[in-house]
Design goal:
five-stranded mixed beta sheet; homodimer; Translation Initiation Factor IF3; 3 domains; BirA Bifunctional Protein, domain 2
Chain lengths: 492, 492
């Protein structure tokens, strides 16, 4: 398979597929809509998971695990939820196969039909709140702060690796609280956990906002979100945190005795991010040569490539310098590899590690070493520098920090350059075609207008930013009064 | 809910259920056969996972993720495999629900029937080898050393929390090799990874062995296993490692070009452990007061309980000693908690932490402190000691090591005391009834005899131990010639 990627400007969608497939992140599978996450892609997800998990635990959450299957009737218990989720899902109807009496392998055993069908979880609010009913009796049982790492299934006809797949991996937090205020506070706290993770670890700036009623999670009273801007000017919802009110508590009869001995319904939140983040990471930073990974998430942060030399003494010197450098870097918890495989040439390796997104590459050649230097290349800007061997480890450590910061600043600048305030419908349409990105515009607050704009332009309201500036204006489409701008974009 | 447990001697099975439910490890769910893993149980699994994952990576493996669903036809491709796995499994037949036109919630949409049914994976050999076909072309692509952490489903009619559930969590390693020797070596290497993990981390001694043909994994040429002995004298298979020969390579046409440009079939292994290990951990060590956890796996290793004092000065002194101790222990990566909740009494806390299996409990009271001592209780032996405050942290660190070792030695002694060599059928039956445990006996090597013994006694051949002593003897049942003893037991 050729490692050359389609250029972003020629075909952005194809570039994305190329990079995911050739960069070793994922592969198509024999099951329509499901992907195989390959080792390089899974390592990225593991690093995301470990960092998020740490942050969830630091904010008082515990992990648990709930069943993969949900009885069909559970989905109907919360009215809005069933509308949103009960439609496209995998339905288990039987629990046994048997040998085909006509010899055609195995067939479904008609005798093994389930009394009630089971749904492969598209999300777990229903099964979890049915369980919480047994776990919550008194205010002393609250708050209940639980997270689950799991796979979920939402049947998709049109899929894209990582961005939209029938099965995906995610985490879903489900918390229960004694008061509305506490639940709202939790919803916002977890949004902030996601936002800081995205910015500090993924080097991906996000807008913190709240969804319009139309874009809310099915069953939520408010959906908060983080929205990121991809290099093609499309937005991507990178995480959501829902204030669920008492909807699920009422649907599953979850009450608690408060301090005054009164029975009250419990208040709920749920929040999640998924393997979609891997897709976001690719699209936020990568280039026509391959992946560009932020050092904090890169499975491999530094690679050392020796430039082979037939002189055994020179080769020994290269090895000795490499080994010393590795030991110094490892002692600082830097993920480093010495690629001394002599079946491939340095040029091939350079291209391979560029494709894989390794942040720093060090070339060690005899001539450079004789001059007491090494060539250090950074993946984000592709700049190369000759660095004194005396200072090499310290340089690399600093460089990793610089790359992390530079990637964030570059993405921040990109977002600033591609966020446009518009004040008329003509302008809205023109900007959307000529300079895609976030469009900040007034909107009259109605679902009708929101849907009309979507129908006309495929742009949706990504969110109403938190702490949004209040400003009188007129809706770009209807001219009706508006109190604040909202962010529009076409989106993944 | 009362926290009192059934005694082991009165009803071992009920004791086990009590401890799992009341110790906060797991709960029944609304879906028959599926359990909810509660935070304390999940934390144990996480600690197991993290340690195993480290050991897998140290032995060169990478994680990946394959689809939850397997096309039905895949199961039929390997003849033995389909016999073993295609029977009791969850079958997805439809991909959509719709509103019931008669108003009864949602119903399965008959229009959304899948052309080919999908099976929720009971194990992933088939979907993985179907993928490996695309990943392996040349000897340069080998070995391929991949592991997956996932949920799997095997429909069970009679379930027991952790030990036998319809859905469970596990890891499954799937490796591909150029030669038979390499694959056999990998199979044994991973068995040893499991065995050392079980002994060093779970403090649970295991017999390393190989299964008889009758007990082999469906599709394997050899199944290696680790077998542990529970306190009721029943054996528990704690992990398996399979040499799969070329069976799956042939079923899925996975060949590679070797160094001589010849096309050869690839050699395979697979190996797995599951949340069953949590059940094994409980049954290997716990007692009538609750869980007894080995320090290396205990989510909480040390708890400090203050004995409240109305004198604020004495109380401040307790707090100050506790905080200093915590800071010292944390600096040594010990998981420690100061439980100064004043809503519950020390006696209640003592019972609670005993139930939860916290290895070390420190009580800090004003009178003891005045004498420069603290009371330190170890969970494994329930011994208490007065320890000088000057030496407290060092004492606790050493005690954690001692407890880990003691638990292993105690279990080892228990196994030695409950492994009996027998030389006649009468003896076999008598020992099985009066002193359950491993029975070491001669067997004539036939499946017929093995099944007859199982039918008569419910005892199965757990394994033929590795490096088994070769010794002439006569089969306990048939009197036919035998070259070695094998281990029998009743088993979970």
């Amino acid at each position: 398979m050729s490692k050359t990627l389609t250029n972003r400007k020629d075909d952005y969608a194809q570039w994305y597929n190329d990079i995911v497939l050739k960069g070793g992140l994922a592969d198509y599978s024999a099951v329509k809509g499901c992907m195989v996450i390959k080792p390089h892609g899974y390592a990225l997800w593991e690093n995301m998971r470990d960092e998020l998990d740490k942050r969830f635990k630091e904010t008082g959450h515990q992990n648990a695990y709930f069943p993969l299957f949900i009885p069909k009737s559970f989905l109907s218990k919360e009215a809005a939820h069933v509308e949103g989720f009960a439609k496209e899902c995998a339905v288990v109807t039987h629990y046994r196969l048997k040998n085909d009496p006509n010899g055609g392998g195995v067939i479904v055993d008609p005798e093994a039909k389930l009394e009630e069908e089971l749904i492969v979880r598209p999300t777990s609010e229903t099964i979890i709140w049915n369980t919480y009913k047994d776990w919550i009796q008194s205010y002393r049982d609250l708050p209940l702060l639980i997270n689950q790492w799991a796979n979920v299934v939402r049947w998709e006809m049109r899929t894209r690796l990582f961005l939209r797949t029938t099965e995906f991996l995610w985490q879903e937090g489900h918390t229960a609280h004694a008061t509305k205020e506490e639940a709202v506070e939790e919803t916002k706290k977890m949004l902030e956990v996601y936002a800081t993770f995205a910015e500090e670890f993924m080097a991906m700036p996000v807008i913190r906002g709240v969804k319009t009623a139309n874009e809310r999670f099915a069953g939520a009273e408010d959906t908060y979100c983080i929205e990121a801007l991809m290099q093609d000017g499309k937005a991507l919802q990178a995480g959501t945190s829902h204030f669920l009110g008492q909807n699920f508590a009422k649907a599953f009869e979850v009450t608690f005795q408060d301090k005054n001995n009164k029975q009250e319904y419990v208040w709920a939140t749920s929040w999640g991010v998924s393997t979609r983040l891997v897709g976001a990471l690719v699209m936020a930073h990568s280039d026509d040569e391959g992946l560009v990974l932020p050092p904090k998430l890169a499975p491999l942060q530094v690679v050392i490539v020796p430039i082979f030399n037939k002189d055994p003494e020179a080769q020994a010197k290269i090895n000795s310098i490499a080994n010393e450098l590795i030991s110094t870097l490892k002692s600082q918890n830097i993920r480093v590899k010495f690629d001394n495989d002599d079946n491939t040439r340095p040029g091939w390796k350079f291209a391979e590690y560029e494709l894989k997104g390794v942040p720093v590459r060090i070339a060690l050649g005899a001539r450079d070493i004789a001059n007491n230097i090494a060539e250090v290349a950074r993946r984000d800007t592709k700049e190369k520098a000759s660095v004194s061997l005396d200072n090499l480890a310290a340089h690399v450590v600093q460089l990793l920090t610089d790359i992390q910061n530079n990637m964030f600043q570059r993405a921040l600048q990109f977002r600033a350059d591609n966020t446009t305030e518009v004040n008329s419908w003509d302008e809205f349409v023109k900007v959307l075609e000529e300079k895609p990105g976030f469009i900040s515009a007034h909107w009259d607050g109605t679902t009708e207008t929101e849907e009309k704009i979507k129908e006309l332009t495929k742009a949706t309201i990504r969110c109403i930013p938190l702490n949004n500036k209040q400003e009188e204006g007129k809706c770009v489409l209807t001219g009706k009064a508006s109190k604040e701008r909202v962010l529009f974009a076409r989106a993944y």
